[in-house]
Amino acid sequence: MKFRYQNRFDKERRDIMKTLAHAGVSAGLLRACSLVGGMMVARATEAQAGPTKSLLLFAAGGALDELWRPSGSMQLGPMSEPYESVKSQMNFVAGGTMSPNAAGHGVMFAHFTGNSFNEDSFDVNIGRTIGANRPLRYLNLGVQCSATLLSRQGTSGVPTIDSPASAFSLLQSNLGGGGGGGGGGGGSDPRQLYVDRHKEALTVLRQKLGQHEKEKLDSHLASIEELESKIVDTGGGDTPSTGSSCSSVSMPAGSTSSFDETAKLQIEIAMLALKCDITSSVSIAFGEDNHQFTIPTYNQVFHQSHHCCPGTADYTITAKYMAGLCARTISRAQAEGILNSTLITQVTDMGDARAHNNVNVPLFVAGGGGAIGRGKVTNASGKNVKDLYQAVANVLGADEHPNARQWSTSPVSL
After folding, report:
1. So what's the architecture of 50-194+258-400 in CATH?
2. Which among 35, 40, 116, 335 counts the fewest CB atoms within 10 Å?
3. How many CB atoms lie within 10 A of CB 285?
4. What does the pLDDT look like over 41-60, one tens digit per residue?
């Protein structure tokens, strides 16, 4: 008799359990080492056509359409110039809108929920659908967001994790139960090396896995140790560094007291989580929509660039900086070999920040292999951010899951 699966996610889960049983991996080992679960999900999805991961970016401040929208020959404007090296991987979605009361300051949750008070935000719903079988359902990272409730699971707000050390500790923890804002036990000290803490479990694991999984495990652990050394040596932004066995590793300039350095560390956390198959859904908020933060290229509060003076010079500085962070994220995903399996979606808080309006909102989708058009401009023709979310969810196959949120009946054509 042929077994009937509820959907492809149910089949994926059952295939994973079969793989674990055949490998002799016990439930105890699975709980002890979250990498096992992530690797097994990755194995089950390797043959799946299309992207299987999502990275959602919030870039504060919007942009001026006439300075951001690429021309027909993909000539970039002053505000989109940082995308030059990665534009071939991008689908620029121009002419989009957002709900009128979602544009402007003080409504952070609206940007990821499509202005809903009681439904999942995009990152959470993707985690609950395509990421339902991953060790960690979703990971919500922020840069100077003050743990704002940007994300939402149903009626409950999910705070951003602004500390790279806290985010990394979450990845270290026992992630068997999933969830984005907490969960898992152990690993409260980010200076306690992951490999040392799980030495016994990893030794057993190597004896049980095939060569393919062993190679993936070694690659994952190398990434973990490299990132861990960076967080340890900078103190993780929470406490001064006390040194570690990885202190000889060359460190990037700056520390987590800087917006820029924190943003770069959070990008690395995102890369680690996705590359190591710990989660299928990561979000990063570069700042909050009140714009009360400072960046290296602008010596005043970010918000001032939109209202300080005639002309567009100051606004261009801050818009270019945000584009630079997003471009860096795409480049890092490409360098880590996960861009084709990941859809990177960027949203913001308004169109023209000088007017706090909700039209000509600068958006993009990148990566995804051949699942979307790349190196092009898509004219959204007034469609809403929710129409973009629906399009991305459809490409990822999230709409096939019973927990899928329906964002729109007229998705943007990517």
Report:
1. 3-Layer(aba) Sandwich (3.40)
2. 335
3. 29
4. 555 555 566 899 999 999 99
